[in-house]
Amino acid sequence: MKIQVKVKTGARENCVSFDEGSNIYVVSVKARPIEGKANAAIIKLLAEHFKVPKSQINLVTGQKSKIKIFEILG
After folding, report:
1. DSSP 3-state assignment of 46?
2. Is residue 49 within a helix (H) or strand (E), and if so which, with residue range?
3. How far apart are CA 54 and CA 66, in angstroms?
4. Closest Cα partner for 7 from 31, 58, 56, 57?
């Protein structure tokens, strides 16, 4: 399954929410987008949210963008 994610970095707390109007997951992470730390935090949060191992989540597009597409396997 592929999902579209809007990222908010530097947040007060880590959380995952779903915006039904735009059909996008909104992921807020404390980590800053330096050396891939924010992307790693996003993968960890998505793994917890969908109850899958981190190895089952791949970043497809948007390595340096606020809008990303992830593929969740399994």
Report:
1. helix
2. helix 37-50
3. 20
4. 31
Question: φ, ψ for residue 38 (rounded to 5)?
Answer: -65, -40
Q: Which two tokens stand for residue 4?
A: 């579209």
| Residue at 64: amino acid letter | K
Give the C-alpha separation, 50 to 33, whole Å: 23
- AA identity, residue 63: Q
- pLDDT > 90? residue 74: no
Q: Which domains does the chain have, with CATH numbers?
A: 2-72 (3.30.1200.10)
Span 57-73, average pLDDT: 96
Residue 21, C-beta contacts closer than 8 angstroms, at least 6 positions apart:
none
Determine the residue type at 62.
Answer: G
Identify the pLDDT of residue 55.
Answer: 97
Task: Please report which helix (H) or strand (E) contains residue 41, including its range.
Answer: helix 37-50
